Input
Amino acid sequence: MIETSATAPIPAKPRSTQLSLAYAVAMPHPESHLFVVTLQIQGWTEPTLDLKMPVWTPGSYLVREYARHVENFGAVGKVGETGEIQETSLAWQKVAKNHWLVETPGQIPVITISYTVFANELTVRTNHLDASHGYFNGAAMFFYIPDRTPNNQLVNQPRKQPIQISIVSPEPDWIVTTPLKPLADQAFTYIAEDFDTLVDSPFEIGTHSLYEFTTHGIPHTLAIWGSGNAEPEKIIADTQKIIEVESQIFGGLPYDYYVFILHLTANSFGGLEHKKASCLIYPRFGFRSPEKYQRFMQLVAHEFFHLWNVKRIRPQALEVFDYEQENYTSSLWFSEGTTSYYDLVIPLRAGIYEPKTFLDNLSKEITRLQTTPGRLIQSATASSFDAWIKLYRRDAHSDNSQVSYYLKGELISLLLDLLIRLRHNHQRSLDNVLRLLWQRFGQPESGFSPQELKETIEEVAGLDLTDFWQRYIDGVEELPFGEYLAHFGLQLVANSDPALPFLGMKVQTEDNRDLIKSVEVGSPAQIAGIDPGDELLAIDGIRVRAEQLKDRLKDYQAGDIIKISLFHGDLLRTILLTLDSPRPDRYQLLPVDNPQAIQAENFQRWLGSSLESIK
Output
């Protein structure tokens, strides 16, 4: 698309090198889901202006193509001498999916870019606007100017320039919450020191509830949008405990202000970390049940822990963000996985739940791993590297071909913590690894390489971990839970229903049809040729529904041949298959019988309680 307009000749004069960038975000009709954005640029001296929209946001490793929501792009410039300044349209064209090129010939004192952004996706990594509030992330809302022109010359390094953001509220009673510092003399106007900071600073705009509290002398804000059964006072009290425990690990808090933004919805769950904020989304009625409330506090602990591990202690590949494409790293198993291990540990240390609950939660995580066939196919490092094409793009075959770097990394971190504790008689732990990484890479924000990560863990452990790395991190060998946990008086017990022969497929009812959602590799169902998407009809000529399947299978034994009727597309098929022996479907950590004194002591020093307390 090209737009042009006639412009009067402009007398030549020296060009300014002071670049000024100011965004204004308005929402005149919130129910339309359209943010109206303007970008005012002063001091631009090049003949063309490149504007690019990020394709992803840090912390969520998927190309999301935020530019697809941009509409009504326009560009105008103010030209002429003092007293004769007029606005004129500037020619522009879209040259790539997320790249706009504006012609800026001559001296143009002020360039104004305008566009709208459609925002009707409420997640922690996207934008949402309706009659009740506005929420946005910088990567999904704002353009950046690349630091280099097409001829590869530096232009004021615009990504490093301060950026002003003004919010134009649609209602007089709407307020703005963001971790950015406000300008004292302008209402609802904030300053970001550079584009990376703008991307890292979410905005919540509306009539949300605000709760202020102080920890370690530092102000914090909890902003809650939506209604439900959340109890702010309880959440704040437990959040303060989490802040205290995590600050003890790292030796203080690396910020002067912090914001928790909580969205209450029907059934969503998630979080996104920022240097001075956490964005959380949780079911609105998920706070009364102790188990659900504890899960929420794990989410808080996870995202808050990220302000060190990921936001400051991060892989070299994520040290300077490339917003145009995938940023590959093989270390997400540590960045996300170790954080997931600590989101189990932190609430325990904070006294939010007891060791038995911790072990129950850990048992569930081990169950998830051990019932995922893909754990034997994809390594933790491969899972990290392929995050962009696998983890967030699940399909019916995913469980057979991949493993989550969150999950595998969490349980690798468990083993490393136990290994270090045993090696140094509990004088060192994984805490020491994190503190050393913080000192070497987090505080200077220099980024670590995979080799430096390995060497740091080896330094704390005091031994060569090459074999461990090759087998469990770069390799796909089963994690040796029994070997490590036995030293702490624990055993991992595999459980199965002896009356339930193994079929190997998951069935779910949708629109009154019982659809096969996944088929486990090597299972009787797969060997017989059953595919995801097939519609289950009957077993041995008698109709069976998804919720009846397990009970019906209990009428058979391993080795029995059954006849399954199904629709494959629109073709009726009848398949014979042989049922297999029952498979473990849950794993549980339990105390060993008659633990030795050293086992009981190790358990006590690890979890701060006796083995007797978990029986």
